[in-house]
Amino acid sequence: IWYDGIDQACDGGDDFDQDGDGLQGGSGAGGGPDCDDTDADVYPGAPEVCDGIDQDCDAAIDEEAVDALDVYVDADGDGFGVGEAVAEQFCEPPLGTALQGGDCADEDGAVYPGAAEVCNGVDDDCSGFVDDNATDGARWYADFDADGYGDPANPVQVCGDAPAGYLADSTDCDDTDPSIRPDASEVCDGIDEDCDGAIDDDAIDPLLWYGDGDGDGDGDAAATLSACTQPAGYVPTAGDCDDADSARNSAAYESCDGVDNDCDGETDTDSPDATAWHPDLDGDGFGDAATSVRSCDLIAGWTADGSDCDDGDGGNLPGGIEVCDGADNNCDGVSDEDTAVDASLWYADADTDLFGDPGAQIFACELPDGYTDNAEDCNDSDPSSNPASREFCDGIDNDCDGDTDESDAFDAQVWYRDVDSDGYGGDTLVDVSCAQPAGAVADTTDCDDGDSGVYPGSTETQDLVDEDCDGLVDEDFILVGDIVVSEIARQPYAGGSGTALNPQAQWFEVYNSSSADINLSGWYFEEQDGDRFVLSPSVGLVIPAGGYAVLCYNDDWFGTPAVCDYTWGDASLGASYSDTTFYFDRPEDLIAIYLNGLLMDEVHWYDVPEGDGDVWPAQAHYSMQLSADALSTTANDDAGAWCLAGNTVYTSVGTVGHPDRGTPAAANQTCN
């Protein structure tokens, strides 16, 4: 209950300030000046607005309202006033005023801004121009190219006659070219000259095309069509003698088939397959090669064989028996040659390799030039092919052993299995041979022969897989600053003197500051004197996002050897992947981490204070760690971000004889 002096709601509120505007209302004892205690916007001193309410409780309504409007004297009542606004503002414009100014003739109610302009010699719309764009003016169109036709896109509307360069016509489709107009002649040029909306229609210069029904490139002279561009099924030249047969055209060859194939008007003439006939005067079935006639049909007394060497003697003919009689009995061009029936047997040695061709033997009375007494050559046209030669991969039986390109060939290829068929092989030997076996290649650079998306030159993606087989994983997606050196056990066990008396006690930790897992395979690590090692891909060290990895000289020193993710002193990893001289043996030293030649992080410590007085922490049996609030490649360059590790013991005391403290593979503490 309001205004009774009792706080029934027990909320400590003012019983006389119902609307909470800070001023009391009500009547009687305890009442205040608020004239409407139900409206927080109504109180003495409130801003007055045009709403018919007394906001400031002064018993006057809408006086000096903050949203009152300027008004202008409007003598002609057209809703637009003249001159400047009157001094007083109003919530509602009084009679004879308007809310808008700009009237250029306040004595004429038909003249005001926005009024329709008409041809009357008056500036009806107060634009400053008389009769401009009058609604009842005539419409004219520009004729910029002076071809007698107007441009529909460039009209003007004026009172009176057409302006210079304008016409009543609006049918020109290109007012920049006088040759393009409705009465122009259409020509074949890809332009609509006559402005009928069609291009090259009814052109005066069309080309003549010939129907090509069989698609052989020659047209039918009786099937023509005039058009600017080549119609489908038509060609520019005639000459086809049968437009239903694509094999008959001017480019075809004549053949012996009783048809005019080349459309030259003649049948079976100059046919490439016509037979050459030779005269056979002695009737021995062999004709004279010096005389021939080509014809598709047999000529009586002629023969197709023109190999007779003496067409006047039927006893001398190809295939005759050669004897030592001074005549060429068998028409081989030689008399009493080595094939005489009474000659000795010899074998041709055309390649002069001293081995004869068993398939090229002759008889002669004595050894002829170019022959030998054995028949052991398997290719008498190649001096490199004989029983004394070495085998090569060339499709030839070089050593004449009856086999070609066998595995003992000098240049036989070693083939490796390509399981995933990506063109790159793994390390599984398939064969040594000249011919490529199925599923094999002469390559061993595939780093995962079970995945066709993994091979040298493949595109790397961010998936912890080395798709391009370069020994690096996801390298295109890793940024400088993603891997941070976060803890270093640089002090040897022997007194912290800075010498390498116990290099096996040394290790360092790196932190993955990125949001993705990172595989360190192929990364390399270097210390100040140039010693370095590459992290072996065979280990496959992956640091999860926000996780740590520990790299040690020797994991035997750890109470839990599995804490060491990589042991660089292990020579069994190979020369590139280990280094038994890699240790931090100087008071001033450094660790640098590289990915594909790019420096990803470097920590360089000194034995003297830095310029700001900070000192790199150094104490035997304690690692130095990067503060948990400074895990970045920028912060770890500052000695002030490092401190000695806490009291967590990580070594096997029974092995080393004393405890060593640090937080390998665990979250770092915040240095203070």
Give the helices and strands, then pairings:
Blueprint: E1 72-73, E2 97-98, E3 138-142, E4 151-158, E5 166-167, E6 207-211, E7 220-227, E8 234-235, E9 275-279, E10 293-295, E11 302-303, E12 344-348, E13 357-364, E14 371-372, E15 413-417, E16 429-433, E17 440-441, E18 483-489, E19 507-512, E20 518-519, E21 524-527, E22 532-534, E23 542-543, E24 548-552, E25 566-567, E26 589-595, E27 598-605, E28 624-626, E29 642-644, H1 653-656
Parallel strand pairs: 24-25
Antiparallel strand pairs: 1-2, 3-4, 3-5, 6-7, 6-8, 9-10, 9-11, 12-13, 12-14, 15-16, 15-17, 18-19, 18-28, 19-24, 20-23, 21-22, 21-26, 26-27, 28-29
In total, how many beta strands? 29
Based on CA atoms alone, the radius of gyration comes out at 55 Å
Residue stretches low in confidence (pLDDT < 50, at least 5 long) are 493-500
SS field, number of helical segments: 1
Rounded mean pLDDT is 86
Distance between termini?
62 Å
Class per helix and strand makeup: mainly beta
| Strands side by side in the biggest sheet | 25-24-19-18-28-29
Largest sheet, if any?
A: 6 strands, mixed
Provide the β-strand percentage band. 15-25%
How much helix is in the residues? Answer: under 10%
Shape: flat
Could you state the order of secondary-structure elements as H and E? Answer: EEEEEEEEEEEEEEEEEEEEEEEEEEEEEH
